[in-house]
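Q: Hi! First time doing this. I have a protein sequence and I read that you can turn it into a structure. Is that right? Here it is:
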Amino acid sequence: MVNVTENANFIWSIADLLRGDYKQADYGKVILPLTVLRRLDCVLEPTKQKVLDYLPKMESMNIENTDPVLNKVAGFNFHNQSKYDFESLKADPTNVAANLANYIKGFSEDARNIIEYFNFNEQIDKLDKADLLYLVVKRFAEVDLHPDKVSNVEMGYIFEELIRKFSELSNETAGHHFTPREVIRLMVNLLFVNDRDILTRQGIVKTLYDPACGTGGMLSVAEEYLKDLNPDARLEVFGQELNDESYAICKSDMLIKGQNASNIKFGNSFTVDGLEFEKFDYMLSNPPFGVEWKKVEKFIKDENEKKGYSGRFGAGLPRISDGSFLFLQHMISKMKQDDSGSRIGIVFNGSPLFTGSAGSGESEIRRWIIENDMLEAIVALPDQLFYNTGIYTYVWIVANRKNDERKGKIQLVSAIDFYSKMKKSLGNKRNEVSTENIDTITKLYGDFEENEFSKIYDNEDFGYQRITVERPLKLNFQVSEERIERLKEEKAFINLASSKKKGEAGEKEIEEGKRLQADILKMLSSMDPDKLYKNRDDFTKVLKQQIKNSGINVKPAFIKTIIKALSEQDETADVCKVKNKPEPDSNLRDYENVPLKEDIDTYFEREVKPHVPDAWIDESKTKTGYEINFTKEFYKYTPLRSLDEIRADIMALEEEMEGLLKEAISE
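A: Yes, that's right. Below is the predicted 3D structure, encoded as structure tokens:
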């Protein structure tokens, strides 16, 4: 990749010309669009004159849309009919702004739209006023980005390296824009490995989609894979991207490769689905980790409530702080439902594996995916693979057409140890997955066998029933001074002497409330402070009789407040009952997760009853949940060191310290 490094460094050096006139955070507004322009310029260079020579013929043809004809002359899905190119631009220093504008205007519509997403016209004016435009254009004319010199793969790396550097300058997250290529290659391998017999058929055409496509790395690598596997095959790629610059780079890359650039859509995949009615054979994505979806909350909740499972988010909504599962549900909605089905590869952090208890949005989404037998495998990757985070990540393989041997099964692959250290780190990226590592991980997945790094489970192994274990409420009651003070602090008691009314009416209501407070306290003070009641019904009868004898009007709801304030938990007291049934004590309430394959009553009798004989299950609150405890499944027990080993180490340290002290004293 020497070519990549040299070209990226050269283009990066051009940014030095902007120092002083531009903030470092804004360098990319100039360098990225000019890099795209120079790439397009180099691609079109061999046929540029042919297009210019053909223009006089076009005038006599009276064709409204000339783009298709001139594209064919150029030999690409785009062309430029301006007389200018980078070589001629640098030949006229005095008119470079006007000439550059004319050059950009000369592109066919698809290519011109790409440049518009960079808002580059503003930068042309700014550069021209600062007498920088000619200098910058001249430097760009010196770099040869023709595909014969810089392949599409290498060009992708150059863009990624530039974005990473500009993101570092502006404290942005470069990883939101692209994924390391070796990670993409691994994901593509995992996605395609079981379909090699399909993909090697003559003239096969498949589709692939990425709802957060960034600069198009996923799409490009997948296309390269299929071409290497079967030169006669065609992969039509589709994508959508929210970031202007990434979208423009991705679309230009697709244009140069001969893909249909209109398949790349701009905007938020959730709120403006540019490919709403499309279904795809394959899907790949690396959505942003742990990014909240508050900005689109109303739209997504409305779709969830109004459309349910007929929409994209019927299975559930994750917590607002992490929209990862929204991307997966969005992709699942684009699966083909015929016999061919679809396959998805998506990168997540650890959160979607286990976040959320039974009944939560995350758990319900996992439940929907697993119970519909769509989760095929999860591969744990090494840490420090990504530019913007050092955390462990996981590739989920989701399919609605599993092979027979995989039906009803989920494979977990631990690949956290398959990596090599980079000579030089890039942001948080210190590790990389080599070609050999990729082959090993792919084989572990493809072989579908149990070993040290691969475990195979039934779908139900990750499910559980969350039962609510209740214990009876047992209270004693006493009208002691301490408990009366507790009543005074109750909100309901304080509110007796308050009013929402204004003026005399409000003052009158407050005075009446204060009198009621005093009457209640007087009534309670007349009761025996030493008598302890261990039955709630008995105490309630005594209290109500005391209230009646006192002649004060206390509402039933406030009587409950008094009883609560005068009570304390007491294991020796009688069980409090409601309608002749034990009332549960919310303070003693507990929860148990019972594996889905195990009978709840058997589990309860074995694990709970021996410790709390008076407990029972509130079956109305039982919920089904799913979680994937990846770490537990691959946990390796490390035995503790023996006391003899520890003692020997301590003795050795003491001897070493004693020797050092003797040396210090002797000196």
